[in-house]
Amino acid sequence: MLLIGRRYFSRSFKHHSCRIFSHRASQPEFEVFEPFDRLRAKIHRRSRIREEVRVRQLPQVLDRLIDPAGARHFFEAQFTAYRLLKDKDTQRARDTGLITGYYEPLLYGARSPAPTFTVALYAPPDDLLTIDLADLYPELKGKTLRGRLQGKKVVPYYSRAELDNSPLLNGKELVWVDNALDAFYLQVQGSGRVQLIDGQTIRLAYADQNGHPYRSIGRYLVDKGELTVAQATAEGIRSWIETHPARTHEVLDSNPSMVFFREEAIVDPNEGPKGALGVPLTPGRSLAVDPSYIPLGAPVFLATTYPATDTPLRRLMMAQDTGGAIKGRVRADFFWGFGKPAQEAAGRMRQDGQLWLLWPKGQPLPVR
To answer: Is the dihedral of CA 118, 121, 125, 128 positive or negative?
Structure first.
């Protein structure tokens, strides 16, 4: 276990806090709660900060804030900002990491297979075991092991390639969709909407995962010499797959991770999917992080740039989600929302960025 304290959290941010948090009428350093009223109401209704944070008064305090200036004052008065640092990095500075984007996709499908709808999306299989290691080792809190029983032994669960076109998931089909790559991207995003042939739209939410690590299919194509790093965007990968349809399964199966879903009704089409915190995600304000280092529910200040540009993107975010590819202290995924513009922004976003954890004053820092 590594302590994050003074070694991995730099309090030097305090020396820059006036610059970061100060307001400049002509060119503000960052935006504070652009959809403030909506986010405040959402936090009041549903959000929770993990027990380590212990600021149960947060929803009540936010209820009294009536404008962005009040929010700014609240966070400056109640929180200390800690810059997150990595152990080491040969490609980036210790305070700089990768910031990507994700979105809620829309797929087209049916309740039953048909010539147009051949790719199934599944509920969790009955033989998938999820073991909370903290039950045996408290120091492994937050770590889980997924597998299956083979005799008296727990062995790794089947990989994507082993599950592909096998009878192992028969009876667990939720819907069939019309495109294998879209189904794959839905698993990468973690949730999404499916418009059925009868006109109904449902949401498929993350339910479980087979326990295998996420592997980037873009990296696979780069390593095979099929694409350059610059070409390995979501749309670049789609274009390559459309040109090489016979190799679709080879590429998709290079990622052994497989996600399983549960069906949810869409009560409010303007509300985002629920993240790992159990709170509906807010476009442009919800961030997926590694909860080993950033507790879910914590405010996080992000300094990066807009997708494929040098235009600064600096704002306060909420750590409300996780992701299989989101590993490390200075690593985050920016939620862009639902629809084509969100899809395009998320597909282009691969930016350098810095993160600061805003932690309640007087509370001990999390340990890792």
So the answer is: positive
How far is residue 193's CA from residue 173's CA, in Å, rounded to a whole number? 16
pTM of the model: 0.74
* Other Cβ atoms within 10 Å of 160 Cβ, number: 20
Nearest Cα neighbor of 130 from 239, 208, 183, 198 is 208
Ranges assigned E (strand) in 159-199: 173-177, 192-196
User: pLDDT tens digit string along 230-262?
Assistant: 899 888 999 999 999 999 999 999 999 999 999
pLDDT at 183 over 70: yes
176, 157 Cβ separation under 8 angstroms: no
H or E stretch covering 305: strand 299-305
d(CA 215, CA 45): 36
Do residues 335 and 288 touch, judged by C-beta distance below 8 A? yes
Question: Among candidates 121, 124, 251, which has minimal Cα distance to 187?
Answer: 121
Domain ranges of the chain: 5-102+275-360, 104-264
Name the CATH superfamily housing domain 104-264: Barwin-like endoglucanases (2.40.240.50)
Beta bridge partners of 2: none
CATH superfamily, domain 5-102+275-360, is RlpA-like domain (2.40.40.10)
The interaxial angle of helices 180-189 and 234-243, nearest 10 deg, is: 160
Assess contact for 108 and 194: CB atoms under 8 A. Answer: yes
